[in-house]
Structures are given as C-alpha cells and as structure tokens.
Amino acid sequence: MGRFFHHAIYPLFLLLFVVPIFLFYDRLNVTELQQLSLILIIGSMLTAFILEIYLPFDRRFKMFTKQFIFDSYFTFIQLPLISLVIDIVGTYLRNAQFPMLGFLWPHHWNPIAQTFAILIIAELFYYIYHYLGHTSDFVWRIHKYHHQYATVYWNNSATFHVLDIFLSAFFYLSPLLIFSVSPQVQYLFVTLSGVTGILIHVNFRHSTVFINKLFNTSELHRWHHQSESMYNNFGKVLCIWDWVFKTRFEKDNDEMLKVDHAHAQK
Ligand SMILES: [Zn+2]
Fold first, then answer.
1. Which of 34, 100, 136, 233 could form a disulfide with 224 if both were Cys (CB 3.0 to 4.6 A apart)?
2. What is the mean pLDDT of residues 211-216?
3. Are 231 and 134 in contact (CB under 8 A)?
4. In angstroms, rounded to a whole number, what is the distance separating the alpha carbons of residues 167 and 153?
5. For residue 149, how far is its CA from the centre of ligand 1 (angstroms)?
6. Could you tell me the distance, in angstroms and rounded to a whole number, from the CA of residue 183 to the centre of ligand 1?
7. Residue numbers of the domain that contains 127
8. C-alpha 47 to ligand 1 mean position (Å)
9. Residue 265 located in a structural domain
C-alpha cells in the first residue's frame, strides 16, 4: 500500500493541479484562466508543504529554522515581483511590435498540442541558460546562490539571486513571446510548469521511477544539488534535453541519505 501510494503521488498531483485547467480552458476567459492557474499552483505548493511534514524524504532536514524566513521572502515576495516584472516586460515587447516569428507557429493546432510543442522549445532555452549557469564563471557567480542548499524542499524552489531568477525566467518564457502563442497556451504552460516546478523541489518521499524518463523530477533534481553530480539534470519540467545532450543522471536517492553530503560548491 505504502509503495503504491509513493508511486501515485506524482500522478495525483498532475490529476488534481494540472488536469483541471487542461479540461476547462476553453470554457474560461483570460482572467478566469489566470485565477485558476494561480489557485492550482498555490494548491500544489500547500499540498507539498503538508506532505513534507508527514512524509519527509530526508528526515534530518529541519524545515522551520531561520532559513525558512529567508526562503519565504524569495517564495512570497521576490518570485511574485519578478513574475510581475516579466509580465510588464513581455507586454511592452508585445506592444512594441518587434518582428516576431508568430507566423511560423501552428496557431491552428489544438491549444494542448501547442502547449507541449512550446514546452519542448522553452525547455531547450532553459537548458542552455542553466548549462551556462554551471559552466560560465559569470553566470555561476549568480547561480551558485541557489546551489548553497544540498537539500531541496518546497520553500527553496525560488531561492535564487534576483538576477538569476529574472534571466532564467526570461529565457524560459521568451519562446512564448517569440512565437506569439495565445493566452490560453500561456496559462496551460504556466500551470504545467509551475506545478511540476514545485514537484522538482520537494522533500517528501514519493517514487517517480517511470516518470523520470520524461519529466525532470525531484529524484533527478536532488542529484543536481549534490556537488559530485551538479553538471547533470539541467532541465526544468522535462529531461528530454538532458537525454539529447547526455547530461541526464539517475541514481537511487536513498544513496544520498547514507552519506552526509557536503553543501554543493564549485
Ligand atoms: Zn543549477
């Protein structure tokens, strides 16, 4: 029963917090889509928080320390502010009518198919930025702030240097702007990326042994936060570009609990 539950958690998250917007997007206007997306992302975050209390992966990790207050600043103040800035910059660029590549985009496709198509492109943009975050001294200077934590949990998923989170979000979302995708596709994308983004950074016990083949999960991302394997698993939602560029790394996470991993540092 316990093992089945561990395997069921990730699909249940998708069912509860991603599938609803994919089912009802065509009956909602843009404001309703925006609200539903926010409710689903916050719902998944709260659920992750509760699961981490009752079903922790790394039991040595203490959630409620002074660090929790710092992390809360990044989650609840910096992240919404950066989202707002990205939104303003995106609206400005859209209104400035720079020549974009919207004419190349298959706008006639079903919005769900468009969401997965733009996701694959956005993941490549993110992969490139994140790869540079570890291989370029300049970008590492800001990205290492996020890597001071060897243990990932829901509330340090947004603990980034302000410039790092702005640049990575801008890179990640720029294909949506370049190809002028519709608001429907944008909110489907943001919800899928937001909910799975939280699942990458959780400290509750669950199994994603099959999901790991396509999605970048916490089982893969925890290795990205260990110094010996930090040049792996650069994807955000998906691990397809890690497969393509041979940087995907998968190993039983319980190995991590057997040794005291030092904080990841370059
Ligand atoms: Zn990294």
1. 233
2. 94
3. yes
4. 22
5. 11
6. 29
7. 2-258
8. 25
9. no
Task: Give distance in angstroms: CA of 259 to centre of ligand 1.
Answer: 21
- Owner of token pair 């429907």: 184
CA of 140 to the centre of ligand 1 (A): 9
Q: Are 205 and 57 in contact (CB under 8 A)?
A: yes
Closest CA to 218 of 226, 206, 227: 206
The total number of structural domains in the chain stands at 1
Helical ranges in 78-135 per DSSP H: 79-95, 111-135
Distance CA 179, CA 119 (A): 12
- Residue range 153-212, pLDDT digits in tens: 999 989 999 999 999 999 999 999 999 999 999 999 999 999 999 999 999 999 998 899
How far away, in angstroms, is 98 Cα from ligand 1 center? Answer: 32
Beta bridge partners of 215: 238
End-to-end CA distance of the chain, in Å? Answer: 41
Residue 263 lies in a domain: no
> What distance in angstroms lies between residue 31's CA and the mean position of ligand 1's atoms?
33
Residue corresponding to tokens 């400005």: 92
Residue 185 falls within a domain, yes or no? yes
Alpha carbon of 256 to ligand 1 centroid (Å): 18
